[in-house]
From TrEMBL:
NCBIfam families: apbA_panE (TIGR00745). GO terms for molecular function: 2-dehydropantoate 2-reductase activity; NADP binding. Residues 3-160 form the Ketopantoate reductase N-terminal domain. This is 2-dehydropantoate 2-reductase. Gene3D superfamilies: N-(1-d-carboxylethyl)-l-norvaline Dehydrogenase, domain 2, NAD(P)-binding Rossmann-like Domain. Pathway: Cofactor biosynthesis; (R)-pantothenate biosynthesis; (R)-pantoate from 3-methyl-2-oxobutanoate: step 2/2. Residues 192-310 form the Ketopantoate reductase C-terminal domain.
Length: 311
């Protein structure tokens, strides 16, 4: 299968390495020419979850170069895995995707938070866009190296029953992912899955960034725990009013994620430390938007946005 991966951060590199090793026809689109050229000439250093390192050859091109290239159908992708972060889901990306999806490719959107699916659908009305969430752990120590730090699960599917939701391409992708050793499953309840991940990210990400702690340290202090609980309860109430139908053990699940990813720095803490734009507007901002539509208060979410912005 022809799989284009747009975004060469930790997750994009991890999927590129696994799929290329499994013999899939992969093209990786990077942000810079420098990263694409180094990947092309030196390969990708991939350290798997057992600690074994190997060099993987990954065909790569910068997204800009790809978008400006005359031969639109040079790589007629069946699937596009979109692994860029929320701030990069913008007009520049849509320009790239209009070319990339011209062959009829389906798009798998792997962003944290909410809002991106609607924007992608609006910008690419002819394309099939699927929602995805992953619990995979990966780190990118430099532009051409990736470390798989924890095995996770990729869950994907259509956002709602009434949308264009073709089973065949989804099953083909699922097969390719599993064949590459990527744990994956299809879901008909993506809205619930996305809201559940949103709830976890809305609590863990801003609070680890504000308190500058690893995920496992967050609930260890009674004051932080109290703030976590208040932010969780407000977010859960809003998301339930917005249609989330998950079980009633969400607080326990949240604590479970902190325990399972105890040694990790959240993506928001890493973004803050590196001086990058965070995804907070699409995480807590997404919850505030829903609260506004429903006429509900969202003071805790507003407070963490202000604090993260102040950082
Ligand atoms: O998704 C995450 C993130 O950091 O963005 C969690 C689940 C909090 C793991 O670090």
């Amino acid at each position: 299968m022809k799989i284009m991966i747009v975004g060469a951060g930790a997750l994009g590199l991890l999927y590129a390495a696994r799929l290329a090793e499994a013999g899939e026809d992969v093209l990786l689109l990077t942000r810079t020419d420098e990263q694409a050229q180094t990947l092309q000439s030196e390969g990708l250093l991939y350290k798997d979850v057992t600690g074994i390192e190997r060099l993987v050859k990954i065909p790569a091109q910068s997204a800009n170069r790809y978008a400006d290239c005359e031969s639109v159908h040079a790589f007629a992708a069946d699937w596009i895995l979109l692994t860029v972060k929320q701030p990069d889901v913008n007009e520049t990306l849509f320009h790239v995707l209009r070319r990339a999806a011209a062959s009829g490719a389906s798009i798998l959107a792997l962003q944290n938070g909410v809002g991106h699916l609607e924007r992608l659908r609006e910008a690419l009305p002819a394309a099939s866009v699927y929602a995805a969430i992953t619990t995979e752990g990966a780190l990118r120590p430099d532009l051409c190296a990736v470390i798989h730090t924890g095995t996770g699960l990729l869950t994907f599917g259509g956002w709602s029953e009434d949308e264009k939701n073709d089973a065949k391409p989804q099953k083909m992708l699922l097969e390719a992912l599993i064949n590459a050793g990527i744990q994956a499953k299809l879901s008909k309840e993506m809205k619930d899955q996305v809201f559940l991940k949103l709830l976890i990210n809305a609590v863990v990400n801003p609070l680890t960034a504000i308190f500058q702690v690893k995920n496992g340290e967050l609930p260890q202090d009674p004051y932080r725990l109290k703030i976590m609980r208040a932010l969780h309860d407000e977010s859960e109430t809003i998301l339930r009013a917005a249609g989330m139908a998950s079980g009633d053990d969400l607080w326990e699940r949240l604590l479970g994620v902190c325990a399972a990813t105890a040694a990790n720095e959240s993506s928001m803490l890493r973004d803050v430390r590196a001086g990058r734009v965070t995804e907070i507007d699409w995480i807590n901002g997404g919850i505030i938007q829903r609260a506004k539509r429903l006429g509900m208060p969202s003071r805790m979410n507003e407070a963490v946005i202000a604090l993260v912005e102040a950082l």
